[in-house]
Write a structure and sequence with these properties.
alpha/beta; globular; five-stranded parallel beta sheet
Length: 380
Amino acid sequence: MDLVDSGTLQTIRLQPSHIAAIVAHDESKQYIHCAARAIATSSRNIFVVGTGSSLHASQMTQFLFRDAGLLRTWAVSSFDFALYPQPVEPNDVVIVYSHRGTKSFSVKAIEKSKELGCTMVLITGQGSSLTHFRSDKIFVIETVPNEISSCHTSSYTGALTVATLIAIETAKQLNKLDNAQSLQTCFEHLLALFPTAIDTASWNTLSQAAAEVVADRSARLVFVGAGAGGIAATELALKVKEACYITAEGFPVEQFLHGPLVGYGKGDHVVIFSSRRDGEEAQRVFEVCRACVLIGMKVWLIGELPDGSTVESLAGVSFANVWGSEFNTESDPSGFFANLCFTIHSQVFACFCAQLLHTDPDSFREEHEEYSAAVKSLKL
C-alpha cells in the first residue's frame, strides 16, 4: 500500500535532512557548547520539562542524560513544574522543550525558573516565540522548521538530536570520556541509519501491521516497551490518537503487567518494542509476549527476538524486524538510540493507520465542528 501525501508524511520524510542541518548549524553548536558548560560547571540537578510529545522528549532525555553519567536528571511535566513545589535551586539547570513556544504552562515553567535564577536551555522550533527569553543564562536552541501538522514528528526527533549533542559535550567536559564515546558512537550510527527510515521499501511490514490493527474497530490497541521503549510506546500511542482519532494506550513493560493487562482481551492488539536480545529486559519482553498470546491478543514484536526464544515458543507473535535494534546494551544501556530509531517507523505506522481509517493526520480534528469548538475554548 502506498501512502497518500500529507503534511505529516512530508515532515517525516524530511527528518534525516533536518537532523543533519542541526548537527551542522554553527549557531546551534555555540549554544550547545554553552549549555554543556553550564551543566558541567554549576548544576546540582537537571530538570527537563515539557507537555505532550515534549514531555515524552523530556522523559527520553532523562534516560539519555543518565546514560551520559548525569544521574541527577529529572523529567517533569510543564503543568506540574509550573504549579507545584519542586526541589529547584538557583544553581540547577532547567531544560524546556516546546515545539512552537506557545504552550501556556511551558511558558509559566520558564518564568518560574527565571525568577529562581536558574540557567535554562530552551529547545524549540525555528521562529519560536521563546527566542525573546534569550540571555546570558538562557540558551535558546532552535531545531527544525515549524511543522504543518500538530501531529509533531520532526520537532520531536530534532529536539532529541540537540539533547544528544548536549549530553555528549557535557560528558566530555566532565571527563566522563567513556560515556561520551559510547554516546558519540551510537549517535553516528543513528545518523547513518536515519535515511533508511524513509526508504519506502522498508514500509511493507508497517503497512501490514496497520491493516491488521485497524481492521476491527472494536479491538483495543496498546503499545508496550522497556526502558526508553516505554516512552516510545507512549509517544506512538499519542501519534495514533492525533493522526487517527482512535483510543490507544502506551505503557512501560512492568506497568502494563500490573493492572492494565487484565483490561485487554481476545482480539485486542499489542505492539511491543524489543531493543534487546539478552538480559532481564529481553526475558521480560518474552514473558509479556507469551502472556498476551495466552490471553488471545494479537501481538506484534518490533525489533529483536530475545535470545533463547524460538518462533515456536512465540507462536502467535508477528515479527517486524526493523532497523534500530543494532545498538548493544553496553553502548546504549537504556535503549535510547534503539527506540529513537523505532520512533520514526512508529510515525509512519500512524500515517498508514490514518489512511486506512480515512482520517486527516494534519487537522487535529478541526474538520469536526465540536472538536474545533472544544480546542478553541481552551488556552493550550
